[in-house]
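Subject line: Sequence and fold of a protein, written as structure tokens
Area: Proteins and the way their chains fold up in space.
Start of record: The labelled sequence and token lines come straight after this line.
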Amino acid sequence: MKRLPRLAKTVIGLLVAGLLIILMFRWLERSLVYHPDRVLTATGAELHRPFEDVRFRTRDGLELNGWFYPADPQSERAHLVVLYCHGNAGNIGNRLEAYEALLTAGVGVFAFDYRGYGRNQGRPSEEGTYRDAQAACEWLAQRGFARSRIIAYGYSLGGGVAGGAGRARAGGRTGAAKHVHQHPGHRRRAVSLAAGALDQHHSL
């Protein structure tokens, strides 16, 4: 068998090196950006409010877990729901205070875990979190919430995820009417922004 020309060997070497670099960057993305916790440190029942422990499926076939808290039926905002997209660490069990604040504003709340977080299958990725938020919006649509009634609320990394849920409409899919991005350390301000966004849709 003839030996490969030196140029061919160089090209093959560069391709292999490029592939290794891509794999390394993907590993760094998962290890540095995403810090999922597989153990739920709380249950949705700890808020002592009506809630549902929900299972729903993404378009690429993964089963995800979420907690749905219906709004107080006496609230003037009972027809609205906040889709809560959490940050890069922990899981839905670490955000009870945020859910309580939003529920106190008189709306429903649907908090969900991304793939690879909590009790969910799969491994987290940027594209994966967008798919997960889209599936959560579709679950809310199946429950009878129109797009104009859904506000995507994102904490830290979840801000980008919430933005993706808000843009889903552009692709002809079920998405959120508006999104609110909460920066770490600005919870009270973000809740106020969310309330303002909800008020804009109060008469819809």
